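The data are set out underneath:

___
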Amino acid sequence: MAQITPLSAEALAGLREGFEAGASNRMAMNAVTAAGVDKVARNYDRARLLQRRFSTVVDNGEATHQDRSGRCWLFSSLNVARFVAKKNLGLKEFEFSQNYAMYYDKLERINYFLKDVATLIEASEPADSRLMQHLLQDVMGDGGQWTMAMNVYKKYGAVPKDLFPETESSKNTGEMNTQLRHMLHTAVARMYAKGADVESIIAEATAAGHRILTIHLGEPPVSFDWEWTDKDGEFHRDGEITPQEFWKKYVGSADLESYVCLVDDPRAEHPKGRKIAIEHLGNVAGGDATEYLNVTNQFMKDCVKKILVEEGIPVWFGADCHPFMDRENGAWATDLFEYGKLYGFDFDLDKEERVRFADSAMNHAMAFAGVDVAEDGSTRRWRVENSWGSKIADKGYFTMSDDWFTEYVYEVAVPKALLPAEYQAALGEPAISLPAWDPMGALA
């Protein structure tokens, strides 16, 4: 093994001399230490010339707010669903309970995790293996995928937000997740003990998880009386209805559960037109597997454009939201910040290299709510419904340049009917199975 040599005093002196020799380095230091890097590196011309107008806009009302939680995938999927529900209910504003969806997602994940780990232990998986350590570290985060959201809605339905509102812990999930994680780690340690009664440990841990969730999030309704006044002032009463009935009646017409997840995995060894699956990734045991069809980024754009323009419904997607983001003004563009010029370093990784070398992965889910299409049919920019509240961007709606879509959007959920015959056939073929820690398994 090569020897790791120390950073010498001579080398450090050379670095200092090199910094002082750069004519603009001290000015850059003065500016960044006073104002922060984004204000200094912001490309003024690009920022002012990025238009906020679109040839197609899907109006989905007031932007939602996930607060200090990682529930973007639930917020964004429910934002698509609420668009459908609003049309069917004749409402101008409506919001589903994200707390209700999170409650059952986490309860199901407790069961999924415990049963998954029990199977691995039975197969003699070492406690210190890469797989077991990954599962233990990753458990009880807030992130998820479109298919995982649909698994929750298919089994548990959904309820209006005012019937199961936010709590302190749903808005700020850190402490609750810590306690759940500690409980599950304790359960796994007990499973590994000699002579352990694994079934009893699972039952006890599941009951404890249910108690913790109910204490933090409240007890979700099994049924409720539904009545509302529509945008024309007309009163309606549905009577007693279950969450499952509510979902089927007011969202079922869109058939969101049958949507296909398209992903742009840029790595050459993963061919386009093939399905990808991530081992041990899921939430509802017995639900649909979390699988993606690997396609070109351009095909993803074409599908999203078609849905927005022809069907007029928002489109769920997952992206790496951090690069080149102006959060306050609500903008993404690949040249919005000139970090390379500021630092004197060429950040030249392409999309495949960024994925391969852990520089980029999907970490946030949102919904496309508009597109600007040029005269030749190409897409110029995209309107994005975020879940960071209405006090930033254009009342919570962001603008994305088309080149940013190419580089940092990884996944979209679309109707199966949009796929050509060869892609439909590929859905019936076995998926390429990737390990649990693969970057395509990153959760929004």
In short: The chain has 17 helices and 14 strands. The chain has a mean pLDDT of 97. The first strand starts at residue 56 and ends at 57. The longest helix spans residues 98-122.
